[in-house]
Fold this sequence. Notes:
This protein is mainly α. It has helices at residues 6-21, 26-68, 73-86, 96-131, 142-149, 172-176, 185-189, 201-211, 229-239, 252-275, 277-282, 288-303, 306-331, and strands at 191-192, 198-199, 214-215, 224-225, 335-337, 340-342. A hairpin with a 2-residue loop joins strand 5 (335-337) and strand 6. Helix 10 packs antiparallel against helix 12 (288-303). The radius of gyration is 26 Å and the shape is elongated.
Amino acid sequence: MIHDFFLTEWFFYLLRWLYNVLGNSYFLAIFLTTLALRLIQVFPDIASRKSQRKQAALQPELEKLQKRYSDNPQKLQQEQSKLMKENGVGMLSGCLPMLLTLPIFFSFLAAFRFWGYEQTLKLTYETIVCQEQTVVEGESTLADDTYKSFRFLWITNIWQPDNGFKPVVASADDVSKYGKIENLVLFHKGYTNLRGEKIEGESIWQTLLDYGIAEGEFGGDNMKLLPNNAAKEKYDELMSGYKQGYNNGLFILPVLAAGFQFLATWISMRQQKRDNSAAAQAAGSMNFMTWLFPIMSFYFCLTATSAFALYWVLSSVFQIASSTIINSILKKQPVALGQKQLGSDSRGHSAKRK
């Protein structure tokens, strides 16, 4: 989708490019993109965890300041800020990974939604074209091959949700709600089909127009899919040749996404408590986060494309692996405070100087 949020456009073009380079493999494109993003996020994650460990090591000094300036809140705030600044501790550094994760999450959600739109329209176009061709008995059509390429393990169509109550091909009602289709990259740059043939966007749109399931001038903001009930009925009839029914998936990816997200959040909160005992006192009010993120993950992966759900499951697995490795490495390193190196145990308490 062009003219969208820049991260959404970047991710979309990256996924589309990798798909073509990797021999039309959706899984490899998603896997490599997810791995690359998690590797990029490792650096701010390390900085955040180092900052949290410094805060834990500074806790005794902060408590002394609280006692010393208990009757002077303004002075207390100044001294606390000075102490943390001298030791390279940022107040918001612990939030950095979350600030990075949220825009990436929603940008990827949008990128996969637009990619799903294009794949559905591509299949629709090829189905119309192949319907007009003579098919040799026993041979599959281009549309059949494209449809088969959408399968992933137990999921019939990766561009539909992994949801046992969703049809394997987008319904007419869903397709009619595709917004701003004039901005779809498919209509601007076309695509290369599984047989290596380049298909132009204008040709795709003209075919949809001629078949009677679209209206509007190519490239204009009046482009519309399935504009009326007659067009919807024609679309349903066209796509009826594929396996229909409400059985696209088995709810596995949404459950995995929720489970791994719960584990990732739980590991993160447990580490924060270990690094900073003072955080344990306030943990009760934050426990809802342990459940909020998994519930959100389950909902989004239940309603979004299976391709996005696969990305989110892989991202959570990589996050758990990277967190475990980072925690293991940092646990063995001393905490650097100003010009001094303070060794710390797993709970972040300062070690006694020799």
